[in-house]
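Weekly modeling sync, notes
Attendees: AB, CL, MP (scribe)

Item 1: holo prediction request
CL wants a bound-state model with uridine-diphosphate-N-acetylglucosamine before deciding which constructs to order. AB pointed out that an apo prediction alone won't tell us much about the pocket. Agreed to run with the ligand included and paste results into these notes for async review.

Input as submitted:
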Amino acid sequence: MDKLVIQGPNKIQGNLTASGSKNAALPILFATILSDEKHLVKNVPCLHDMESTLKMLLHFGAHVNQHFEATWGSRWTIDTSRVTHGNAPYDLIRKMRASFFSLGPILGRLGKGRVSLPGGCAIGARPVDLHLMAFEKLGATIEQSGGDVDIKAPGGRLIGNKVRFPKISVGATENLIMAAVTAKGETLIENAAAEPEVRYLSEALMSMGAKIEGHGTHTIHIQGVDKLGALNYSIPSDRIEVGTYLIATQLLGGDVTIADAPVEDLEILILKLRESGATVDVVGKSVRLIASEKIKPVSLVTEAFPGFATDLQAQWVALMTHAEGESLIEETIFENRFMHVPELIRMGGKYSVEGSKIKIFGKPGVLRGAPVMATDLRASASLVLAGLAAQGESSIRRIYHLDRGYESMELKLRSLGARIERRQDD
Ligand code: UD1
C-alpha cells in the first residue's frame, strides 16, 4: 500500500490541465452496453474506479482496448456486440458502488439483470431504493435474495412511465435515463438531478440516437427508441478535480491557471473563492486563481447542483481552517461526511461538529504536519490540502481512496512546486 509524504508549507504556481471527469465517465462507459456496436470514448481519466469499470464491462462480455495518452487520460474502444448477460457479482460491486449504475443499461439492452446490492460506505448509508423504485415504475419486477437483486422487464422490454423522485439523486436519475432510452414509449422524470454529469450522460446517449429533452433541468422527457447506435464521445473535464486545485491554490498561496476547466459548472465555487479573497479570472475554458494574502471566512451549505457540491465540502473545510475567523458549513447531501475532521484535529485544526453542521474556528497557519489516515475519496483530498498547508511533515495513509478519483494527484501538485511524494507504506 502507498502513502503520500508531504513537506509543507509552500506556495504553488504554474499551469495545469484538468483530467476527464470520473463521475461523467462512469455512467457513460456503462451506457455503451445499450447497443451492440463498437464505441470510442476519449479522455477517460486513469483512475482505480475506471479499472473497476473495465472489469465490469469485461465481465458482461464486452471487448475493451485502452490506449493511454502521453500525459493524462486514455482512449477506450469498447465492443459491446458480445454482451450476453447482466449478472454482476458482489466482488465487483463492493469495490465500487457506482457499479450499480450498470443496471440501467443492462435492463435497457437485455431486459434482465442480477446485481449485488452495494452496502453502505464511509460517508453514509447510501441506499439504492430510488434506483429500484424507478425501475419498478417502468414495469420491472424485482426480487431480492442473498444480497442480490434480480430484475426483469416482463416481455423483455421496459415500458415508459412518469417517475417522480421524492429526493434528488444523481445516480438514480442516471440509471433511470439509461433504462428509459430504449423503453417502449415515453418517460417523464420529475425532480431529476440537474448535475452536469447527468447532462453529459444525456448528450452522450443522444449522440447514440436517444431522444431526451430537459436534461440539465429537474424535468426530463425521454422518448424510447428501438435501437441505439455507436458512441463516439470525449469525457468533459472533472469539475471536482478543478475545484480541488483552485481551493488548494487559495489555501497555499500562489497563482495557478487550469486549462480545459468546465467553468460553467463551477460558478458557485468561483463565487465563494472570490468571497474568501481570491482573484479568479475566467478566460474561455481556462481559469486562473491568484491567492489573497489573507483568507476570509466564508460559510456555506452543500446542495444539489447548482448549489455548492458536497464533493468539495471536505476541501473547503481545509481552506477555512486557515481563514481569519469563524465559518459554518452545513452538509445536506450525506449524513456522515465529516470523517476528515478528526484527522484535521490531529493536525491542529479547531472545529465543533453538531449533527450536519460544522463550525470552523479558523486561524492562519494553525495546521501542523502529522501522520493521518484517509477515510474516503474527498476526505483524502482535504487531508492532502491540509498537509501541504501545514508546517512540517505529514504522511497520508490509505491513499487508495485518493487513487479512485484523482489522476496522478502528486505529479500534478509537484509540477506546481508542492513537495509531495508517493512512498511505499511499511
Ligand atoms: C453521486 C456522485 C458523488 C456525489 C453525489 C452527490 C457519482 C459516481 N457519484 O453519487 O460523487 O457526492 O452524487 O452529488 O456520480 N439516496 C437515497 N436512495 C437512493 C439513492 C440516493 O436515499 O436510491 C440518497 C443518498 O444516500 C444521498 C442522496 O440521496 O443522501 C444523494 O445521493 P446521490 O445523488 O444518489 O449520490 P450518488 O449518485 O451515489
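Recorded for review: The pocket of uridine-diphosphate-N-acetylglucosamine is lined by residues 23, 26, 98, 124, 126-131, 167, 169-172, 197, 310-311, 333-334 (CB under 6 Å).
Action items: CL to compare against the apo run; MP to circulate these notes.
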